[in-house]
Design brief:
This protein is an alpha+beta fold and about 200 residues long. Helix 2 packs antiparallel against helix 3 and helix 3 packs across helix 4. The strands form two sheets. Strands 1-2-3-4 form a four-stranded antiparallel β-sheet. Strands 5-6-7 form a three-stranded antiparallel β-sheet. It is elongated and about 70 Å long. It has one domain: PH-domain like (Roll), CATH 2.30.29.30. The longest helix is centred in the middle third of the chain and has 28 residues. It is built from six helices and seven strands, in the order αβαααββββαββα.
Length: about 200
């Protein structure tokens, strides 16, 4: 019985808070070690093309889905813990975590969503693909054309709802996405990258 209480308290005090901290960390991008492929001595510059404005709608739906899943987890844990003697002890912690997560989700879907959109941009040059992102701190990802192995345009259910597409760029080291462009624009950018990548391979 004591072991069961300890497990339940651990799940509420440690595991559930992690579900709050991790989305916040991903949103702020303060110290994220994102995969970045750069040429030695490459100069970091500001990308100039923005994503489709409807991309914020897709991101909001992702936040809503994530929030719903986490709140269901909160509710299940509450039902389990409330059947034990530890229910009265854990309930205040549980309530604080639920309220905190809801407030965080509202911020992510409103204020921080606009910041995320403003921080996201991309640019395709004959030699590299540039992607800039970040809420409070800007981060540049540079992908040399000669590193690109495969590129596709894909649509998930959410993107399809808003007639948007995602460009997926595959290299030997990682997979990078340019999120939520209009379908026609995504096809155009994809073909442009393919052309530059083929020319880059020919000149090597």
């Amino acid at each position: 019985m004591i072991y069961q209480k300890q497990c339940l308290i651990f799940s509420v005090v440690y595991i559930v808070p992690m579900s709050i901290v991790m989305p916040l960390s991903n949103t702020l991008k303060l110290y994220e070690a994102k995969r970045c492929i750069t040429k030695k001595g490459a100069i970091m510059k500001q990308a100039k093309h923005k994503l489709d404005l409807k991309s914020m709608n897709c991101w909001r739906i992702q936040v809503y889905i994530e929030t719903a899943i986490v709140l269901i987890l909160f509710f299940v844990i509450h039902l389990i813990v409330s059947r034990t003697d530890a229910g009265n002890i854990v309930f205040p912690i549980w309530l604080i975590l639920v309220i905190s997560y809801i407030v965080l989700s509202v911020l992510r879907a409103t204020v921080l969503m606009r910041k995320k959109y403003e921080g996201w941009s991309y640019e395709v040059s004959p030699h590299e693909v540039f992607i800039t992102e970040g809420v409070f701190f800007r981060q540049m990802t540079q992908i040399p054309m000669n590193r690109i192995q495969h590129i596709t345009v894909k649509q998930g259910p959410v993107a399809r709802k808003y007639q948007l597409s995602v460009i997926e760029i595959v290299t030997a080291a990682s997979t990078i996405e340019i999120e939520y462009l209009s379908f026609n624009n995504a096809e155009k950018v994809c073909e442009e990258i393919k052309t530059h990548a083929l020319l880059s391979d020919e000149y090597e």
